[in-house]
Write a structure and sequence with these properties.
This protein is an alpha/beta fold and 214 residues long. 58% of the residues lie in helices and 13% in strands.
Amino acid sequence: MSNKFITIEGLDGAGKTTVVYRITKYLNKCGIVNVVTTREPGGTPVADLLRVLIKYGGPINDPIDSISELLMIYTARFQLIKNVIKPALSKGYWVIGDRYDLSSQAYQGGGRGVDMLLLHALSNKVTSILYPDLIFYLDISPELSISRIKNRIMLDCFEQESLIFFARVRSCYKKLASEKKNVIMIDASQSLEKVSAIIYRYLDWWLIRSRRKL
Ligand code: T5A
């Protein structure tokens, strides 16, 4: 456990990308400059190719099955862990991840309803290799999620999903947040300033805790 692998989770539009940026700036302000950020799916040449397929689907005559989607997501994640996250952590860098394994459990497990045996096998494999030290789950309603993303020029497959789909994803996220260790659930319907202030407080606590363990 490095204490340096933090991931951000939540529905589309929850504010993950914004928070990853703010955490990085905050760590820099605290004198921590070696910070790598990741965004899933993606982050290596192979994972970025898969990101396009995962987000926009296959051609009309070859639509992507939900099991294939799951396998692609995990392929992308394994590439990212092996070629980016692990090497960064082993050099002593902090890694701030925009999505990680809880996303697959919430979207593919909760949203798509894929075969849970397969999902758990993949998830257990990934989390046994690397489990985040700290996870911020930004909780918003499906309605707020859709209202924050609806004006985008191009919506991906997930962003076009129904309220019911997002409700299933959220309820799975909330269940996971209550069961898993090191998950901090934050009401992300609050202003960005309030959400950031809560996260900075946790980071202060986390930094003190990490330094004591050195
Ligand atoms: N996926 C991914 C799976 O199904 N399974 C998986 O295992 C993985 C890893 C990725 C898609 O892939 C799926 C889920 C996703 O749909 P993506 O484009 O990377 O696609 O999508 P997201 O990761 O969801 O990124 P988004 O950009 O859609 O959402 P963010 O990053 O949560 O939100 P952000 O920071 O871009 O903010 C969105 C807008 O809201 C505002 C921001 O300013 C911005 O305009 N905002 C706030 N406004 C008011 N108050 C706040 N507190 C705000 N926070 C943000």
